[in-house]
């Protein structure tokens, strides 16, 4: 049996429910910058905030109540109706999530739903577990009823709403610097379903650090609260979490305590969104201030660019000419992503070139190319899968690019691709890379860690 056909069938399964699977040529190609969806922005917004601080000593987490209280206030300022659940066992938390999902099913399908968890998290057999209050961490590994499963009890409990926006935020942390330095285990990478944005307080396979006092927030939630309160109304949720990532990393790298610098967190986000949704509902009575004609023209050139190096150059031009411009936050986010993308594309082991980043006729495909050009590792993986489906020659390049951007799932899929081609060295390299990126392959694939 042809190994390429075997892998292609596997990818077809993953693409079966994706709009990319139906991508057909149209008359004109387009640049796929995501359009603002004011319909979602005007829809109701709901947030369920879960926090567990109460664990057996020395694993208690004093900052958790402040995390929840302060984030609730910040979200309410952005139009969210909030529900909080503090220091409850896993069964109570699961029940609260089920009730939240039931409530969402009675709301418009384009509403915004957000679930936030702060407490202890761990990974068991490649599955992400959010530990309930009072549970011993080691016992929780063996007794799944003591935890909330991220996929089964959170993501799958909320109604599937590709046309809406669902957000999961996981700030799983520990107070001991020693434990954080010594552990090699955190939460696993997951792939966001369509309509979802999932953000972790630190990179896959690494825990986050939390202060051991009740009057301070964790590093991640502190950045999230501050930026929710300060970003301009034009900032999208996707851009917000990219700004949080930068802020957390820089705050910790510049911390006066050397030990905190050493364990600086690198927040991880995976998303699969159809449109841009801004953090604040639009205000009809207060139209946005007029943007200077030259500034708007330069921003449009940035939006139209699909080659990372060009995006970086144009962003630098904007930031030099419009230091106090209305779009500075968006330009900074675009530049950071494009700079990382450009660095990966310069690598000798990534065979993906400018010709791959072209306007596409299908709007969904165009949006994926636009996101990939700005360093979106998940969009790059989806484009790679699509290439395999249509017998394209860029599958390896897109998956190499996605792996270079930090997508452990793409790296693992590429390792299986090479294994089926009997290219054992490349297969071993990309499987090792997937593990380095914090991805643990499911045990059912025969790759359970011993």
TrEMBL record:
For the keyword Signal, the answer is: yes
**BP GO annotations:** proteolysis
Domain Peptidase C14 caspase as annotated: residue spans:
45-258
> What PANTHER family does the database record attribute to this sequence?
MUCOSA ASSOCIATED LYMPHOID TISSUE LYMPHOMA TRANSLOCATION PROTEIN 1/PARACASPASE (PTHR22576), MUCOSA-ASSOCIATED LYMPHOID TISSUE LYMPHOMA TRANSLOCATION PROTEIN 1 (PTHR22576:SF37)
Return the protein name. Answer: Caspase family protein
Q: Which UniProt keywords apply?
A: Signal
Q: Which PROSITE patterns match?
A: TAT (PS51318)
- Where in this chain does the entry annotate a coiled-coil region? none
| One Gene Ontology term of the molecular function aspect | cysteine-type endopeptidase activity
One Pfam family per UniProt? Peptidase_C14
Q: Domain of life of the organism in this record?
A: Bacteria
Signal sequence extent: 1-29
**What is the species listed in this Swiss-Prot or TrEMBL entry?**
Derxia gummosa DSM 723
Indicate whether Signal appears among the record's keywords: yes
